[in-house]
Amino acid sequence: xxxxxxxxxxxxxxxxxxxxxxxxxxxxxxxxxxxxxxxxxxxxxxxxxxxxxxxxxxxxxxxxxxxxxxxxxxxxxxxxxxxxxxxxxxxxxxxxxxxxxxxxxxxxxxxxxxxxxxxxxxxxxxxxxxxxxxxxxxxxxxxxxxxxxxxxxxxxxxxxxxxxxxxxxxxxxxxxxxxxxxxxxxxxxxxxxxxxxxxxxxxxxxxxxxxxxxxxxxxxxxxxxxxxxxxxxxxxxxxxxxxxxxxxxxxxxxxxxxxxxxxxxxxxxxxxxxxxxxxxxxxxxxxxxxxxxxxxxxxxxxxxxxxxxxxxxxxxxxxxxxxxxxxxxxxxxxxxxxxxxxxxxxxxxxxxxxxxxxxxxxxxxxxxxxxxxxxxxxxxxxxxxxxxxxxxxxxxxxxxxxxxxxxxxxxxx
Length: 413
Fold this sequence. Notes:
Layout: H1 2-15, H2 19-51, E1 54-61, E2 63-73, E3 79-89, H3 93-112, H4 121-127, H5 130-136, E4 137-141, H6 145-150, H7 157-161, E5 165-174, H8 177-245, H9 269-311, H10 317-333, H11 340-359, E6 371-373, H12 378-412
Helix pairs in contact: 2-12, 3-4, 3-8, 8-9, 8-10, 8-11, 9-10, 9-11, 10-11
């Protein structure tokens, strides 16, 4: 019995790894591990030197200053000069989030269609990733989260300040300081031109929807109003015939009553004739208003027929905006000077185009040039190379040790 238990205990002792075995292993392998760590550190440092990038930052201010000067002349020859300075913001939080979500798709589309500028395909491929915009474009708010907590309950005026964007800080990298500055400048340009393009597309889509749906709805209302006006004209003719038959009815006493109520039939014929003619006049005015609106939609369609093809040729919203303003000016020159109804829709288009142009030029502008900094991450890259080489060599040595144990065990058996 005792002789049979001894080999089992010996096998268990042989399978156990003692602390002394670990110390002996490290004593025999420390030189290899140290050499591997040094080599890994040099490789990490070399990778940082050759592959590391410089970084550059560019700050776009998100405000535009509007000065309003008002001169008032009175009968007493006094001049009143009023200067009003108002700060407006090019982008609010909602519009920025909308643009931030759409710009990656626009960058990907530009790469796919070959519309990325020469030498910037790599940058556009990077900007096609949502994470790039989360990491490389940081908005600066009027109040931080900490400020909001400190000022909670002080005033409701601070509620809007916590979501007011004062500036956007863009960052980009490059193999040199010049390349990093060029990349961040190109990214800022794409933010402005791409944001303008996205908002122009929204405007064109809205007008296109009006032309398609509103025109059909207005035409339906015109037909309905024409039918109703036909009944009104028949009613007026019938009342005029009654007036001729009963002329004395027009001199009866009158009381205030709505001609459309059931008791209106007991009013004098003259009052009923006046009321129905007033309804006819209102129907004519409504018809004229709807026809004018149809004419405006026709003019809008003429604008869209030229604008939509241009929107397919470029993703630069500022260039597209200038081209759309030229179309609007050409259509305006064809209008009669005494046609304010047609000019109204062109004034609306003109105002929206200028608003977008100002928002993405003066509204998002930089007062300083991009600032470049040296390469970052040298220590991180070196430490990563050192640790990676050390553990790789450790795994190799352990694998050799295990393989040697397996081979020695097979020889003994």
